[in-house]
Amino acid sequence: MKLLSRRLFTAAQIRTIEQVVITQYGIPGFTLMQRAARAVFEQAGAMLGPAGSVLVLCGPGNNGGDGYVAALLLKQAGYQVEVIGMADPDRLRGDALRACREWLDAGGEVQPFGAGLPSDCDLIIDAILGTGLQRPLRGEYLVAAQLINEHKAPVIAVDIPTGLSSETGNPLGSAVIATETVTFIGLKLGLFTGRAPDFCGTVVLEDLDCPEAAIVGIDPAVVRLLTEDLGNYLCPRSEVSHKGDFGHVLVLGGDQGMSGAARMAGEAALRCGAGLVSIGTHMDHAAVLNTGRPELMVRAIDRAATQRELMERATVLVVGPGLHESVWSHNCYLKAVEADEPLVLDAGAFTYLVAAPSRRENRILTPHPGEAARLLDIPVADVQADRLRAAKELRMQYGGVIVLKGAGTIIAGPGGFYLCDAGNPGMASGGMGDVLSGVIGGLLAQGFEAEMAACLGVVIHAAAGDRAAGKYPRGLLASDLMLPIRDLVNPS
Fold first, then answer.
1. Based on the domain organization, do 191 and 249 belong to the same domain?
2. Which of 227, 268, 372, 445 could form a disulfide with 316 if both were Cys (CB 3.0 to 4.6 A apart)?
3. Are 153 and 123 in contact (CB under 8 A)?
4. 63 pLDDT exceeds 90?
5. What is the pTM of this model?
6. Helix (H) or strand (E) segment spanning residue 246
7. Residue 185, domain CATH
């Protein structure tokens, strides 16, 4: 199960695994259905306690079959159970038909879907449609999803909330808003990307006792990044370490009125362990930045020679925090991209990359959805409609490693695709991206390869946001992340 929590699959991959389990390992499909229903039953019992009333809405396929078996288990356990069939039982086929017949043979009834749902149930189980849905909800399915969402009872979704895309995590027109989603065999990408957090609630994985070999034989579409893995990569330092062992980050940014962005990027690089951090900034800000954080070495860039001198000493460049459309910012960017050292591009740097696109491997781009849309010359809505596809396209066009920020940040690199679902809504505030670029730059300076630096940086940043927010994410400041970052890069 620990391995499975790091692997995100497409619906097609899950179907392949299921067929391998059935054909090569001899586990009947109905047995898998019974195991899935048992998992739903157990979660329902945990939510209800020893008594309560349950409404189960069953669709026309195997998702509905899971619902019928779960309804039978609940009835046998003494719960009051009402089943609504979204399809005539006579039209069911295969395992779903068998499940429905067993429910009927046990004295259960199947009510046709009507104009409303009973108001007095304590729990709703959404077993209408599963991962095979490809088109928007229509007709009674759409009405059912809307009625479930209007109901006061908590909702358990079977495998995936009805109406939610298993690939993009976005609703197909509309989708059920679940309190909890019990998903089977492996985690689906659509439970963690796009708008999935608004619809899935708590995600519970049940592997149905499938042989591990059947699952590990399929490479996941995306690797899920977990905070608990940081200790595998952030090893204790040698007792005879010195600052030269951990690189020198140069942050180039902080045009007029934007000194805070460069400051936060620089401090984040220090907090994650970079040996030295310099800031090359606008003449207006050098004195203030020097006194604000004395560990940062700040120089005013008043001419190209000064920037060249700073770049010659650096091992990594973070370019963009606090740059905007001005002659000073443009010159700063143009000089920076001449460097051979690894680059982290963020924020204002994208204005100039859009104007003069280039492809380069030893750099990391960290766009938010709006910046990604500009880089791809598409609407922001198209980026958010399929975030994985957008990240793939960014990597294809611009090379290097792509960090597509947002809920469910996606990293696209030469080794594959990664997703981090840590973080919280309080991080939707100014300066968070500057902190992330600094963390990634600091990790690059310490010798991590670009893809690893991006993955670790995203996890550290998100986990720091969660620690800093605690129970109250609203009002979280980017600078609140600094001390949690230090804690996270020193795992026990």
1. no
2. 445
3. yes
4. yes
5. 0.96
6. none
7. 3.40.50.10260
